[in-house]
Amino acid sequence: MSMSLHPFAARIHMSTSRSTETPWSELLGTLFSTIAKESQQTGGPMIGHVKGIARAGDAFMRINCVSERRPPDVEGHLPSDVHEVDLDLAMLVFGLGPETAHAIVETALRQCGLRWPMTCFLDIARRRHDAVLRH
Amino acid sequence: MQLIGLLGFLGAGKTTALLALARRATAKGKKVAIVVNEIGDIGIDDALLRRLGNNVWELVGGCICCTLSGELISTLRDVAKRYAPDLILLESSGASHPEALFKALEYGRDLPISATRWLAIIDPVRLAMLIAVLRPLIESHLARADAVVIGKADVATAEELQEAKDWVSHARPGVPIFVTGMGPVGNRLALEELMSCP
């Protein structure tokens, strides 16, 4: 059996001026849903996952998305008065190379930025991104 | 020292099952070590598991069935020597191949492990799609499992759960099946039952 996977991972610092009425679960859930939908539009039904953990001090929120047809699982809590978080994001989807995954994440961030203005800095983990893992 | 290994495709619910097992074991006074493997360069699950107060060893940036097989054995040795847990919970990457993983573990035969159980975690909601695309991999998880956990019972339909049970029973007749989920379904993973699986 052989299957090729190209992992993509990034650390994203998100600074938003969103209203405190908008919970982080909604913002991050929308971001991950958008990534899943963009993945589906690019490569067909999503086979793999997009997951992440957002941190702000001692608070955290974990987001996991395995299908464009299902809302992401969200656990943990980020207080509503927090305006900056560090999000570690990992994406592993069949058929999507790291450059494509990177573009999808940026597109999703832009789309979320239209709704909740924010500034994001992406630090892409590149150590193995040129490698193809074969099983 | 006992070892429970979790097999299952990406997003099957391995971390959720692992957390449930860790909570049960800790509540019973067991010293638990968690070894988690993620293919990506940044570990997500280990960060969550640590935040929840667990003792975690991470293997990231490759897969324990191939590129990180050597690191797996050295990590298990390190855990046994420095932490001496009662139970190691090993979460494989969602893409690891059991045959290759078991071969890698043969190099750890000197480890002081008294009993090992392997759980295959199945996502009933995506099972039909995954079988259509990755049948050999999903079947290989079942072939090596001492028990099968069908998760996400709180979000799957009754038909999806029944189809998953039927498929597992057909692929591995007689294998113990646990149906679990979050929320109102509760998590029914019973440690003793798992460890007593033949």
Give a short summary of the structure.
Chain A is α+β, with helices and mostly antiparallel strands and 135 residues long. Chain A has two helices and eight strands, in the order ββαββββαββ.
Describe this structure as you would to a colleague.
The complex is a heterodimer of chains A (135) and B (198). With 135 residues, chain A is an alpha+beta fold. Residues 128-132 of chain A have low confidence and may be disordered. Chain A contains 2 helices and 8 strands. In chain A, the strands form 2 sheets. A 6-stranded antiparallel β-sheet of chain A has the order 5-4-3-6-2-7, covered by helices on one side. In chain A, helix 1 crosses helix 2. In chain B, 40% of the residues lie in helices and 19% in strands. In chain B, helix 5 packs parallel to helix 6. The A-B interface holds A 1, 3, 5, 7-11, 45, 47-49, 51-53, 55, 60, 62, 64, 66-67, 70, 75-76, 88-92, 94, 125-129, 133-135 and B 10-11, 38-45, 47-48, 51, 61-63, 65-67, 94-97, 100, 123, 125-126, 129-130, 133-134, 136-137, 140, 155.
- Uncertain spans of chain B: none
Q: In terms of structural class, how would the helical and strand content of chain A be classed?
A: alpha+beta
**Assembly annotation:** heterodimer
Question: What value does the Rg of chain A take, in angstroms?
Answer: 15 Å
Helix content of chain B: 40-55%
Would you report the number of β strands of chain A?
A: 8
Q: Major beta sheet of chain B, specifics?
A: 7 strands, parallel
Topology:
The complex is a heterodimer of chains A (135) and B (198).
Chain A: E1 4-5, E2 8-16, H1 24-43, E3 48-56, E4 59-65, E5 73-77, E6 84-93, H2 98-115, E7 118-125, E8 133-134
Chain B: E1 2-7, H1 14-27, E2 32-38, H2 45-51, E3 56-60, H3 69-82, E4 87-91, H4 98-105, E5 115-122, H5 127-144, E6 147-150, H6 158-171, E7 177-179, H7 191-195
Parallel strand pairs in B: 1-4, 1-5, 2-3, 2-4, 5-6, 6-7
Helix pairs in contact in B: 5-6
